[in-house]
Design a protein that fits this description.
28% strand; 157 residues; alpha+beta; six-stranded mixed beta sheet; 6 strands; globular; single chain
Length: 157
C-alpha cells in the first residue's frame, strides 16, 4: 500500500498536482505508515495482485465513514481508500475493485456505498467515480483541499 501511495504521489506531482496528497512519499511518513498498519490489522482491505504477484491495487472499504461525511440512518459501506498502480492505468483495476466493494456490500445486505474524494483539477477524480456509478451528494471542504461526497445505491444499479 505504501508503494502504491508513493507511486501515486510521484504521478500526481508530475501532473502538477501537489495539493491532493502533497509531495512527500508515503514510505517513511509516520502518519501514512500508521494508517496502513492499522488498516491491515482490521477487516475491509482488499488487495489485487498481477499474475506475477505484484500488488496493483488496494481497496479499503469499511463501516467507518469519513469525518467529512454526515451520518446516515442506515448501514453503509464506506470506501476509505482506493489505490491503483499508475503503471497499470487503463487495465480496469479500479473498476474491478469497485465491483468487489459492490459484492461485499451485497453480501452484507448493505444498499448504500459512499466515499469522499479530492475534487480539485476540475473534478477529474469525481468524474472517475461517477463512471463507476456514484452520484454527487455534496461538496466537502477541509483545511487542505476541496472534496466531494459521492454515493451509490445497489438497489438502483
Amino acid at each position: 500500500m505504501l508503494a502504491l501511495g508513493d507511486e501515486a504521489v510521484v504521478w500526481m506531482n508530475a501532473r502538477g498536482n501537489t495539493e491532493q496528497w502533497g509531495t512527500s512519499p508515503w514510505t517513511g511518513d509516520e502518519k501514512h505508515e500508521q494508517t496502513v498498519y492499522y488498516a491491515l490489522l482490521g477487516d475491509g482491505v482488499y488487495v489485487m495482485e498481477s499474475e506475477e504477484g505484484d500488488v496493483v491495487g488496494v481497496l479499503m472499504a469499511t463501516d467507518q465513514r469519513s469525518d467529512y461525511a454526515p451520518e446516515v440512518d442506515e448501514r453503509e459501506l464506506y470506501i476509505n481508500l482506493l489505490l491503483t498502480s499508475r503503471r497499470r492505468s487503463g487495465q480496469g483495476i479500479g473498476a474491478a475493485l469497485m465491483e468487489r466493494a459492490k459484492a461485499v456490500a451485497g453480501e452484507q445486505g448493505i444498499d448504500l456505498i459512499r466515499l469522499d474524494c479530492w475534487a480539485g483539477e476540475d473534478g477529474s477524480l469525481v468524474r472517475v467515480y461517477e463512471g463507476y456509478g456514484f452520484e454527487r451528494v455534496q461538496e466537502v471542504f477541509t483545511e487542505d483541499w476541496p472534496g466531494m461526497l459521492l454515493a451509490l445505491r445497489l438497489s438502483e444499479q
